[in-house]
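Session log. Operator J.P. requested a structure for one protein chain; no other inputs attached. Running the standard single-chain path with token output.
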Amino acid sequence: MPVTGEFVRDTEPFRRELLAHCYRMLGSADEAEDLVQDTYLRAWRSYDAFEGRSSVRTWLYRIATNVCLTAIERRGRRPLPSDLAGPGEVHDGTEIRWLQPIPDALVSSESNDPAEIVTRRDSLRLALIATMQYLPARQRAVLLLRDVLAWPAAEVAVVLDTTTAAVKSTLQRARARIDEVAPAADHLVEPAEPEARALLHRYIAAFENADPVALKEVLREDVMLELPPSPTWFHGDAARQCAVGGLGSAGDWRMVPTAANGQLAAAAYHRDGDGVYQAYGIVSLTVTTTGIARLVVFADPGLFPIFGLPPTHNPSQSGGHPTQTPSGKASR
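Structure written below.
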């Protein structure tokens, strides 16, 4: 067995990007973390046999990608409601394993290069991850390695144990499939960071105060609303009315600003019959200069530990919101 310190020194710097890679492949933060653990266990067991014919990074990606390919064969793809039917249409979602968000704190780049930060953020957008789920496993791997990570075809061939020609052919098929299933580009213009955060806080205030006028003011006329695990989604006026219908009474909701998939998000807590704010779900927002264009409400309290957030919320502490450490872990 290898010396633990040497193995950690050589492999640990790649953990965050491997987690991002596994998430892009699987669409699940939980499964991505498990597969990264499996990757490091396999790498540790075979470290003595590593001959250095490729870089440690390429070697780790080869292990991680093949672990993901096996997992996809067993588990299939993870959709969002809008991938299954039209707005307002009823679809049976009882057996569906839905796409999950991933907190930025787990996969944020340690680089200070603005271009690299933007690339990493854009490659984790929910819309992209959802679109990737349409691809067969190997096409997904090739597209991610070539177009997201910008690896040469020859290096991708090493990772997938195939030929450069096969990589190029697979990439063409993957790009064609993405063009076929991806929605037409709507050229959404994102506001600058301060304006985007101001929009998030207006959305939170509208919900916490149960203010339908304020909520409608921050939502675009053509807003999309998705509510997994509910398979039905809404668009336009129906989405706005559905959002207003969820307001309840003032004080029913408390929300904590966070970030997921390179986008602004909020962790929603709902007050129960005993007056305790219980974890409800993670709300992902697509914000534009003209308002919020898309809301995906992941109604799954099981996501809160991944985001480093507690299962209950005490508004009297931390100025009304739980605080978060730089790692994303909540502090009470």
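Operator note: The beta strands are 219-226, 233-235, 253-260, 263-271, 277-288, 291-298, 312-313, 323-324, 330-331.
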